[in-house]
Amino acid sequence: MTTALGDEDFLTRADPYRRELLAHCYRMLGSVHDAEDLVQETYLRAWRAYDRFEGRSSLRTWLYGIATNACLTALRNRKRRPMPTGLGGPSGPEDGLVERPEVPWLEPVPDAKVGADDGSDPAAIVTSRASIRLALIAALQHLPARQRVVLILRDVLSWRAAEVAELLDVSVAAVNSMLQRARAQLDRTAPTEDEITEPDTADQRELLDRYVTAFHAKNVPAIVELFSEDVVWEMPPFTQWYRGPEPVGLHLEHRCPGGPGDFRFLPVEANGQPGLGMYLRDPGSGEFRAFILQVLTLGPAGITHVANFMDTRVFPIFELPMTFPGSDVGTVHEDA
After folding, report:
1. Is 11 inside any structural domain?
2. pTM over 0.85
3. Any idea what the CATH number is for the domain that residue 93 is in?
């Protein structure tokens, strides 16, 4: 057990890695809540063993090793966290909606929690954002746990194959084989970089403002006009999802509640992508209440993917209020 002086030394040296360890555990588990629990467990394990840390590797590498093993242990008792697109083909607008609240759905993560908006080197920011893209995290959940580890450590964190082999107690050849299989799986499911527009461009801000304005007016043709031809619209905890502007438009026209003036929005940054906290007016009180958290993927042809997280328990993760009294349309760039 460490001494009081050792406690202070440990916290001083280890605390700067907390956000990147949270990002690592989130990539592994697909849940902010689970990742935060595993980071706490990592620090507890590391604190208890700190007096035995011999410095043969860096403290950062040592902490990552502890976190990775904690995640592997946790994954033995947890189901993977899918998105609806990972469960089957697209639905038609005539299909009924089936809600599956018992499924442990993938959760979005705020950029601020995992260091994707820390104002550091621009190239590092792009890399950080890319490593937590919603599509990548969703694809990772379909990999076996050890393949997931290998791909994250090798391709995201740039560990050497020998370091990964030592952590997993396997041969370098086994690591390379797992990496090859994991990359092949991701090539089939994750988007390429040229399909994604980086955040914070003028064109992106204009597109988001047009989207919010159209949604505020519940102008479905104007909303649909902003979509790419192969746009995907999914809505966990509902298993159905749509591909293409027409079925999405029919869903918005006939199933999405609310009319002109019934929506308000607060901007968020989620998974290295723009997002919106959407509020719906309560017809009785007139109060705007938390409704959906949207994470949007923008490409050169428009909005290519909208992930609608309909479980409002994600709002506190983003420090969003559960009610919103605003009365102005505004844009997604105004302060709340």
Report:
1. no
2. yes
3. 3.10.450.50
Give a yes or no: residue 180 inside a domain: no
Domain membership of residue 287 as a residue range: 81-133+191-336
HEC states along the chain?
A: CCCHHHHHHHHHHHHHHHHHHHHHHHHHHCCHHHHHHHHHHHHHHHHHHHHHCCCCCCHHHHHHHHHHHHHHHHHCCCCCCCCHHHCCCCCCCCCCCCECCCCCCCCCCEHHHHCCCCCCCHHHHHHHHHCCCHHHHHHHCCCCHHHHHHHHHHHHCCCCHHHHHHHHCCCHHHHHHHHHHHHHHHHHHCCCHHHCCCCCCHHHHHHHHHHHHHHHCCCHHHHHHCEEEEEEEECCCECCEEECHHHHHHHHHHCCCCCCCCEEEEEEEECCEEEEEEEEECCCCCCEEEEEEEEEEEECCEEEEEEEECCHHHCHHHCCCCEECCCCCCCCCCCC
Cα(10)–Cα(297) distance, integer angstroms: 40
> Cβ atoms within 10 A of the Cβ of 181, count?
15
Does residue 266 fall inside a structural domain?
A: yes
Give the total number of structural domains in the chain.
Answer: 1
Burial (CB count within 10 angstroms: exposed 0-12, middle 13-18, buried 19+), residue 5: exposed
pLDDT tens track of the chain, all 336 residues?
Answer: 555 546 788 888 999 999 999 999 999 999 999 999 999 999 999 999 998 887 778 999 999 999 999 999 999 988 899 999 999 999 987 888 899 999 999 999 999 999 865 555 544 555 577 899 999 999 999 999 999 999 999 999 999 999 999 999 999 999 999 999 999 988 887 665 545 555 567 888 899 999 999 999 999 999 999 999 999 999 999 999 999 999 999 999 999 999 999 999 999 999 999 999 999 999 988 899 999 999 999 998 999 999 999 999 999 999 999 998 755 444 454 443
Domain for residue 268, yes or no?
A: yes
